[in-house]
């Protein structure tokens, strides 16, 4: 049983349309797929329509959050990504917050491009909006515009320079407070799992003590097996999860051609998926059987 619980379509910052992502999952031999686009459930209907009988789909999203506790040296809150599974997509609080975040992403993307244009970088906001094609605008869309313009050879190269968090074109965005997002997902009948908690900047804030605090607010799990985690990080996270009784997941964080990561590169154990389903309210059940 092969289960991948963290993937992205072009409804956020992946490159595969939802139907193509479903077909790619089948070709990769997956039995269960979760589509976790950033701050949107806009791909859910297309995924459901494209789903073949042999593939189970877990409807989900990745919430962009920030945690002010133990913030960065310059005082900025730390960016933390939170996976929400099987929540009510019509919950009014989540709908309103997703709309706010999508508008904030557009303003931020426009500001980043404006900075680049002022510096003579040959891209435009219209080009980025065309690439986004209605999805919430993100830095990967700007990265693809930079590739199209011949400024960089890949989106990865764009993130190491032009789109770097400490670079000259960086613009912060007002993400959801982490504790608020945990409570929001629980109130909507869903299950929250911290995404790649030892990748990027998250390790600065997601101490065992902070994870325990979040658990008391409704956090259910940790993404342990992730391409950003080395063996030491995985061992540490598994020990924290065991100590607190948290669910553990494994996922590829697939983004199509934006990253050199394969679908199913990391997977979740069937028993852990069963725990996610059991912890949800049932308002948004899996599409298909769960082992």
From TrEMBL:
<dbReference type="GO" id="GO:0004534">
    <property type="term" value="F:5'-3' RNA exonuclease activity"/>
</dbReference>
<dbReference type="InterPro" id="IPR003141">
    <property type="entry name" value="Pol/His_phosphatase_N"/>
</dbReference>
<dbReference type="GO" id="GO:0035312">
    <property type="term" value="F:5'-3' DNA exonuclease activity"/>
</dbReference>
<dbReference type="Pfam" id="PF02811">
    <property type="entry name" value="PHP"/>
</dbReference>
<feature type="domain" description="Polymerase/histidinol phosphatase N-terminal">
    <location>
        <begin position="3"/>
        <end position="67"/>
    </location>
</feature>
<dbReference type="InterPro" id="IPR016195">
    <property type="entry name" value="Pol/histidinol_Pase-like"/>
</dbReference>
<protein>
    <submittedName>
        <fullName>PHP domain-containing protein</fullName>
    </submittedName>
</protein>
<dbReference type="InterPro" id="IPR052018">
    <property type="entry name" value="PHP_domain"/>
</dbReference>
<dbReference type="InterPro" id="IPR004013">
    <property type="entry name" value="PHP_dom"/>
</dbReference>
